[in-house]
Design goal:
- The chain is of the alpha+beta class and about 160 residues long.
- It contains five helices and five strands, in the order αααβαβββαβ.
């Protein structure tokens, strides 16, 4: 790790960490035991912010929609004992909140899963409370395809 003052223009990384609440409490206790002059203390100075995810930042769908289809992106961590984790739990959570998850249209790539969800705009903040949600946005609309003009001089 390099110290922040060594290069103020360096690129940063945002890490999302999931785990039981007890594990975070234990990590906080361990941080209190770090000696000020230790290598671990030097690494800790590179952390800019440690905070819970703000659900309001996860919803990027326009506020003027009343009911429509949204694209929900989830962090996925397949486990050997449950290939559908956490997607199966998200589907149940969404159904309880009044959303229809279009399971047949899900796409999984690189630790992220994207799935269309149909339901009320007003409940998106509640849907964002599911801990593995990374983003909720409006599904892109298809635009009509215009036939291109052939090459050459354009008619006036």
């Amino acid at each position: 790790f390099e110290r922040p003052e060594a290069n103020p223009n360096r690129r940063t990384v945002k890490l999302y960490v999931a785990g039981p609440q007890a594990a975070f409490a234990a990590a906080a206790d361990k941080c209190r035991d770090i000696w000020p002059d230790s290598p671990a203390a030097a690494q800790m100075t590179c952390l800019e912010t440690v905070s819970p995810v703000d659900q309001a930042d996860l919803v990027t769908a326009p506020a003027d929609l009343e009911k429509d289809t949204f694209d929900v992106t989830l962090f996925v961590m397949p486990r050997r004992d449950d290939e559908e984790f956490p997607f199966r739990h998200f589907c149940a959570f969404a159904a309880e909140a009044g959303y229809e998850v279009k399971e047949d249209y899900r796409i999984c790539s690189g630790g992220l899963l994207s799935v269309p969800v149909y339901g009320p705009r007003a409940g998106l903040a509640h849907l964002a409370r599911f801990v593995f949600v990374r983003q909720i946005e409006e599904v892109a609309r298809l635009r009509p395809f215009e036939t291109p003009l052939p090459p050459g001089p354009r008619p006036d």
